[in-house]
Automatic annotation (TrEMBL):
This is 1,6-anhydro-N-acetylmuramyl-L-alanine amidase AmpD. It is found in: Cytoplasm. SUPFAM superfamilies: N-acetylmuramoyl-L-alanine amidase-like. Its cofactor is Zn(2+). Pfam families: Amidase_2 (PF01510). Keywords: Cell wall biogenesis/degradation, Cytoplasm, Hydrolase, Metal-binding, Zinc. One of its GO terms (cellular component) is cytoplasm. The gene is ampD. It comes from Neisseria animalis.
Amino acid sequence: MNDSVWQQGWWRNARHAFSPNYAPRAREEEVSLVVLHNISLPPFEYGTGAVEKLFTNQINPDEHPFFSVIHELRVSSHFLITREGEVVQFVSCDDTAYHAGVSSFQGREKCNAFSVGIELEGCDFEPFAEAQYQALQPLLTDLIRHYPIGAITGHQDIAPDRKTDPGHFFDWARLQAAGFPVVR
Ligand SMILES: [Zn+2]
């Protein structure tokens, strides 16, 4: 069945790049939420490989002024979808990644505990690539089949005072039209 695409929380259709920035998911916790983000490193540059370096603690602070600001961050996401539609997975969905920070969804705080994070390579100021939607939808389909996910939301929706991603260029209506449970 569909479970064959999952192995201990790792999705077979992704390239795997292990991040040390995670914690075991609490035993009583279930994955009930997907949080969508955007990210680009350096800001507004694509295809640099720096996002993957950030999530695997390999940022070189000397390479770019911005990197000296962020190189000691210990953050991660379960998935990154590049502009070309490649899916990279950093943390098992059975574990907690560090993507949401201070956050609240329907009155529940600390969304990392019960969510999966998906970063779309991009920014708040331009549309995402068609290849990214083409990659996102099968990932969401497999996540929803495997985990009791009731909602897909944005980082900006669970941390509105701090975050603006994935931003207004993200096509939520497209996900809704495809039958995904968008809740914002
Ligand atoms: Zn975010």
